[in-house]
Each structure stands twice: as C-alpha cells, then as structure tokens.
Batch of 3 targets.
Target 1
Amino acid sequence: MPTKEEVFEALRQVEDPELGMDIVELGLLYDVEVQGPRVKVTHSLTSMGCPAGPMIQEDINRIAREVPGVEDVDIELTWDPPWTPERMSDDAKFILGIG
C-alpha cells in the first residue's frame, strides 16, 4: 500500500507552469490522505482564476497514479484556507524574491 509520504514526495513533480516551481514548495498542496489504494489530494491554487488549474489537476492525478499501489485518486480543490505567499517554503520565497 502507498504511504502518505510517498504520494507527497511524488507530487513534488507537479509544477505550477506560471511560476516554474512545484506545488509542494509553493504551499499549494494542503493534504494527502491514503486509504489503501485510494488517495485523496487536497490542494489550492494561487488565485481563483488561475489558468493553469486544470493542468495542475491533471498532473496531480497522473503523478499520484504512478505511485505503486495507488489505484484511485480523488482531487479536492479548496480555498479554505486561502493560499497566501506565507505558505511557500523558504526556498521558494527566496527564489521568487518574496520576504
């Protein structure tokens, strides 16, 4: 069975194409739940009108399914709490010149 950590690490391959950084470093990945072969990924976007949203969700689905043992992926887009740059890793803030 896959672990939360395995899925979380795999999702570092999902990039926000506008920022050229992965969703983990950007703080867009809120949670990963694993129940046997089923995985639920909760994420946000940098804005409600983010044009990259559908591409990011497709990548989340594809990459999560590549983790051994994952058979089903449920993706939840949330705005609660709203994403802010404070959610980004220190490295991402440094690269983007924030903070």
Note: The first helix runs from residue 4 to 10.
Target 2
Amino acid sequence: MNRLLRFCVWIFLFLVFLASIAFSFLNTEPVALSFGFAAFNPQPLSLWIVLAFALGGLLGLFLGAGLVRNWRSRSELLSLRRKLAALEQELHREKSTPNKEIA
C-alpha cells in the first residue's frame, strides 16, 4: 500500500510538472510585479504564477508540518495526563484500603 501511495504521489508530481511546462509555453507575456515596497523586472506571466504556486506549496508544507507536530504533542500530553490521573487514583485506593496479611 505504501509503495502504491508513493507511486501515485510521483505520478501526480510529474503531471503537475508537465502542466507547468505547458503553461509556461502558453503564457510568455512579460508582466512587471510590484508589492508597493518592492518592484520586480518584467518576467513572463507563467514564471510569476509557477513561483507563487511553488512558494505557496512550500509554505503550506512548513506550516502544516508544524501544526501536525504540535497537535500530536498535545494529544500525547493529554493522553499521558489521563493515564497519570488514573494511576494516581489507583495508588490512592491501594493506600486507603487496609492491607490484609495472611498469617
């Protein structure tokens, strides 16, 4: 199953790569980009869009990885706190019941 998933991911990435190549050939009109504080030289429209797509994907990966790691840590911490509380209750019960020794 893991190999099939990896294969599907590679096929998807290859198709995205082919689509971006085709998009590049069809959109060659130079466009200047300005953010107000910075202005960039005119580049083909396809370059700006592919760069935006790639940067958005990378940013999503970095942010997503951090959120998932944080969520896992929180859920593990919550689980361990519940387990600790249950063990503390059990220990308290053991201490409160009289110990019956067999003579």
Note: Residues 2-95 form one domain.
Target 3
Amino acid sequence: MLVGIVELLPELMKDWRRKEAGDFAKILAEMVPNFQAVIEQYYKAQEVAKSEK
C-alpha cells in the first residue's frame, strides 16, 4: 500500500513548481523518512547557490 501511494503522489503532482508542491513534499517526507533528507539538501544547495552570486 505504501509503495502505491508513494508512486501515486508524484504522478498527481506532475511538477514541483506547483503551489501545492510543499504539501506533497510534507506527505512524502512523512511516508518516506529519507525524503526529508532530500528536501533539506535541496534547500541547502539553493542557499549556497544564492550566497555565491
């Protein structure tokens, strides 16, 4: 069941640029704890990229 939901959410979302992307990310992070690490790495990389400009 969990695998089906984890596969379904990204399909429903289609694109991370949607305004609901944060909500989808929260759901995925709750269901797949390692996904939280991916989110944190993304935000850290964005922070570093902005500071280098």
Note: The two ends are 44 Å apart (CA to CA).
